[in-house]
Structure formats: C-alpha cells, structure tokens
C-alpha cells in the first residue's frame, strides 16, 4: 500500500475548468470517500489519479513519486467501475486472470492469485461461469476480484454499487469494508450517497463544483460541518 497525494490539482476540458485546485492527502492504508453531487468532479479526480485523464495543473503522487506522466499500467493502481466492465465471452476465472496474463505472469502464479482472490470474495464456486450466469452482486465481486489479483498499492472505486438494489448495496458496503480491513490497501472510493460515505469512510472529502468543501472523519463532518453546503448535503440523505 502507498499514500496518495493530490496537490493543487486543476483540470480543464478545452476552455472549461472543472477542477479548481484540489488538495487531498491520503495516508497509507486509509479508506477515503469522495462525496458530492453529480457533476462536482469526483470521477474526473479519480480518473486523474488512475491516469485515465491528464492533469492540467498540479501534481498527483503515489507514495513519494509524482505519477502525472506515468501511464495507468505503471501506477500500481487498480480501479473498479460502476458498470463492472467484465468481458462477457470470458469465464469468471479468465476475467480475473486477464490483466495478469497480459503482463506475462507465469500461469502457476496467475492461478494462485485468482484462487486466493476467489476465496476472499466467495467466488470459488463460480470460477467456470460466464458473467451472464451471475447475479449483480456476484458480478460486482468479480470486478473487485480483477482489482485484487493485481495486488495494487491503491484501489479506486467509482460508484461501484449504484447499479445494485438497496439491500445488496448495504451488504456490499460491508463486504468492501471487510475486504479493506483484511488487505489494508489504500482506497479512494467515490459515491454521491451520503449514507455510503458516512458508514464506509475513515475520512470523507466533500466536494462541490470542482472544489473541496471539507475533509474530515464522518462524525466530525456531521457534528461540525464547515459551511451550509456541507451541512445540507451530509444532513439530508437522498
Ligand atoms: P461526477 O463524477 O462528480 O458526477 P464528473 O467528474 O463526471 O463529475 O464531471 C465533472 C464535470 O466535468 C462535469 O461538469 C462534466 O460535465 C465535466 N466533464 C467530465 N468529463 C468530461 C469530458 N470528457 N469532456 C468535457 N467535460 C467533461
Ligand atoms: Mg461520476
């Protein structure tokens, strides 16, 4: 695991600036939740950390290293998306093994890593199935499995539960937290759901319109919101 630093980061698309100078320090092993209304820049920030978007100004560091110009594959970061992005024509085990094989990892180690991730996620009975033969929750676990097998320094989650029904969402929150307690991998988790943020985060980063409004532990933010926006947003679950 590794710390992640977002330092005076700005992002423009064409002439329009959408991230206006953001500073966030994430400690080794911390679970940080970025929360804010739709369009406030959460995904853009996460994608810059992942290397899927360029950084217009400022710096992103993983550990001590500035990664602005490193391609995603060299950042030692694994990202889990909202829409799973599983390969429909590949069995679960091959979905999980794909990125490792691409890197030329020996077959025996690939098998070992896939087996271990499947055990952690309760996917061992489903390794031979295709994604269409799985429930929504199982698919989400496969998407997490693909991240875990890489044994990255950092996990990034972009609204991973928003396609699931309410009951499953609550269950998966617990599973993701348990996973974090087990692996202790530094995690940046994006959601627009205040309850998800309050229940999962070590620290919450509240964003609005491309700016950070407040950073703090859930109770601290709940009890002492920095301004009316934070008070209204955290105080009124949608
Ligand atoms: P969130 O994830 O918080 O909903 P986004 O990071 O997706 O917000 O978007 C932040 C802002 O940046 C929005 O105004 C969005 O329209 C804009 N934006 C995001 N991606 C692009 C893009 N590729 N080109 C132009 N504008 C974009
Ligand atoms: Mg988004």
UniProtKB/TrEMBL annotation:
Q: Which UniProt keywords apply?
A: ATP-binding, Nucleotide-binding, Transport
Which superkingdom heads the taxonomic lineage of this protein's source?
A: Bacteria
As one GO molecular function, the record gives: ATP binding
Q: Quick check: keyword Cell inner membrane in the entry?
A: no
The ABC transporter domain sits at 4-234
Q: Does the keyword Nucleotide-binding apply?
A: yes
Q: Where are the transmembrane segments?
A: none
Q: Say which family it is in.
A: Belongs to the ABC transporter superfamily.
Q: What is this protein called?
A: ABC transporter ATP-binding protein
Q: Native species of this protein?
A: Chelativorans intermedius
| Residues shown, of full length | 1 to 238 of 351
